[in-house]
Amino acid sequence: MDRLNILTEADITTPRSPRELVAWATHKNNQLSATAEAKLYTWSGAILPNKFKKEIWPLALFVAKEFAETPNTLITPNLGNENFDATVAFGDGRPNVLIEISQAIDGYDLALRIEAVLANSFVPLTGPISRGGRRGAPDSVVVATLLMEDDSDRLAKHLKLVEDAVQRKAGRQYGENCNLLVVVDDYLGFPDDFSQEKLNELVTSKLLLPELDFMHLFIFGRSGNLARKYQLPRYSRAMCE
What we know:
6-stranded mixed beta sheet; two-stranded antiparallel sheet; 8 strands; alpha/beta; 8 helices
């Protein structure tokens, strides 16, 4: 249970239209950053806020783009143990579409930087960062070094995160009604045309794998601005028949 009464399982899993989901998620995102206590809870590792920031928020931004013009569409986030994170139901008789979400983001690094910001009101965006002591212990401290990161090194790191996120899903069973949504950091990793083209080159040359049991691969930026859709080969023949 959300001790701040911001998120509940019933509220999260309520079916909503794309517009309703974005409005609800925006309201919840504002609540989760409104106070120091709410920010601490958001990044505490608790199940519901963790699910929200990793999956529900990018899902809301994604469906607002992908299904905004599709009438009578309802999106239902999934909190169960099934191998999908959301269901998209259409009002015209089409089969439901499932969405599996994978993060191409260094979650540990991000969590440390957020913790440092909450404690000190500042943290470098790049450069080495580590924890001294056990999290939650009185002597625990996050140590960040102010060091400029080379653009090529940063791009290579984020490309590797994308490759790993996609490869983790290879060989698993999902089905042709399921799409893979990979969330990337387009603030630091892919902020411009050059880096986004390198990302596209990686996907088209190495990641459209027959071992991926999905209809489509979507690459989607945390900002909501970067969105790429790729047909995967396993079910491409079915699309042509």
